[in-house]
Amino acid sequence: MSRFPGFSASYQGAVLIVLPVLVLGLAACETPVPEQGLPELTFAHLKPIKLNVATIEVVSHYKQPLKPPNVEHLFPTPPLKALRRWASDRLRAEGKSGSARLIIKKASAVETVLKKKTGIKAAFTKQQSHRYDLAVEATVEIFAGGRQRGRASAHATRFSTLSEDASINKRQRIWFDLTEALVRDFDIEMENNIRRHLGAWIR
After folding, report:
1. pTM for this structure?
2. Which of 34, 108, 111, 186 is such that its CA lies 20 to 30 A from the CA of 96?
3. What's the domain range around 22?
């Protein structure tokens, strides 16, 4: 006797075979998008700034809020991490006494949701949905004989917008490129100011 009244035995068999295939198909649709491999952000290719001090320290006075509108903690390379890497790659202690300190005062990234246009024309146009504003600020201080002997500061800002149809990987790439450009701007200003204000401490 048939287990499903009104169905032939052969049709019931087809049902039992098709159901697993449908389940496998649904599972395949949930495959996550593979993450892209972003390069490491370094400054090792640049000539180091040699300072006539025995030690170099990095101190951060900036605390990441870890909540909106700040999003720097979500970046592939947060601005704070990029500044620490900058100090490691660019500043080198070449002296026998004294010390240098890089004080990070700001390393933020703020997300703003942009207001979209409405209307028929807007419905057929890809709009910019988010804006990201990045800012870094830091100071290099020189200490010798228990006193501060000089200082040089630099800051930089950058911003970019994101299209409403951008993928997660596209957003991560924009964040990376934005951070790289930001710290490159910082690097140029900081080196110029170190040479201008701390020239006596460069070897």
Report:
1. 0.79
2. 186
3. 1-31
